[in-house]
Design a protein that fits this description.
- With about 260 residues, the chain is an alpha/beta fold.
- It is built from seven helices and twelve strands.
- It has a single domain, classed as TIM Barrel.
- About 30% of the residues lie in helices and about 20% in strands.
- The strands form two sheets. Strands 1-2-3-7-8-9-10-11-12 form a nine-stranded mixed beta sheet.
- The radius of gyration is 21 Å and the shape is globular.
- Pfam families: Glyco_hydro_114.
Length: about 260
């Protein structure tokens, strides 16, 4: 074979050989990662926290950029299981997508997470998070199956929806949390990077989250109780034993006060 034919053969081979797929990488916090969550009001970026959870829609881009420039990670919060009438994409939900009112939260209703329309909207929210440069996402209300939603959602329906969310987040190069949904920890643990939990200590459910720690994945815990100093010290001892990162915060998550067990 002449040298020119050899070069041509090599060029053809390079054209038909499929490209090697590079695995998508995403942020994976460790169990000692410190954190802050604030969903309302101007962001207080003055805490010595490794990771901030902030609202996907309401947080100015400059806040995300500045936090990341200072070495912090930003996780973007959105509700994946409820309709919120004030969101900019609220008009895209169909009447059939919306179920019962969500507890004590005015303007919020459970969603039928089996709906193709709901899933399309959530896919676009995940894309928005990626476009805004979020290091990860914190999808809330992913436990509709265990609540009175107005829809006959089953355990398997919830697993299917949550897997859909988590796999899409990872495909976009973002970390993803399991928010509450303690009944599905065993099935979903391999698909998420950390847990965000509200009040497991109050309901004596914290033991259900220990598989995260065993897997080297952090548990970010929120305490909403107004504990006195002695009770708070006991609470923090319990959190330290569990290796959870616990914050005492207002229900509004507006930074009106904050107590961190690791301070």
């Amino acid at each position: 074979m002449s040298s020119s034919l050899g070069l041509l053969s090599g060029a053809i081979t390079s054209l038909v050989t499929p490209p090697v797929e590079v695995p998508v990488q995403w942020y994976q916090p460790g169990i000692e990662t410190t954190w802050q969550i604030q969903l309302q009001g101007p962001t207080n970026s003055g805490y010595t926290a490794d990771l901030y959870i902030l609202d996907l829609f309401d947080t100015p881009q400059s806040v995300i950029t500045d936090l990341q420039a200072s070495g912090r990670k930003v996780i973007c919060y959105f509700s994946a299981g409820s309709f919120e009438k004030w969101r900019e994409d609220a008009n895209r939900f169909l009447p059939t997508d919306k179920g019962r009112r969500l507890g004590d939260w005015p303007g919020e209703r459970w969603l039928d997470t089996r709906s193709a329309n709901v899933r399309e909207i959530m896919s676009e929210r995940l894309l928005l998070a990626a476009e805004r440069g979020c290091d990860g996402v914190d999808p809330d209300n992913v436990d509709g199956y265990s609540n009175r939603t107005g829809f006959p959602l089953t355990y398997e329906d919830q697993l299917d929806y949550n897997r859909f969310l988590f796999n899409q987040a990872h495909a976009l190069g973002m970390a993803v949390s399991l928010k509450n949904d303690l009944g599905q920890v065993q099935e979903l643990l391999p698909l998420v990077d950390f847990a965000v939990n509200e009040s497991c200590h109050q309901w004596q459910e914290c033991h259900l989250l220990t598989p995260f720690i065993d897997a080297g994945k952090p548990v970010f815990h929120i305490d909403y109780l107004h504990l006195d100093s002695q009770a708070r010290a006991a609470h923090c001892r319990q959190m330290a034993e569990l290796q959870f990162q616990s914050l005492t915060l207002p229900v509004a998550l507006d930074d009106s006060f904050r107590f961190a067990c690791n301070d």
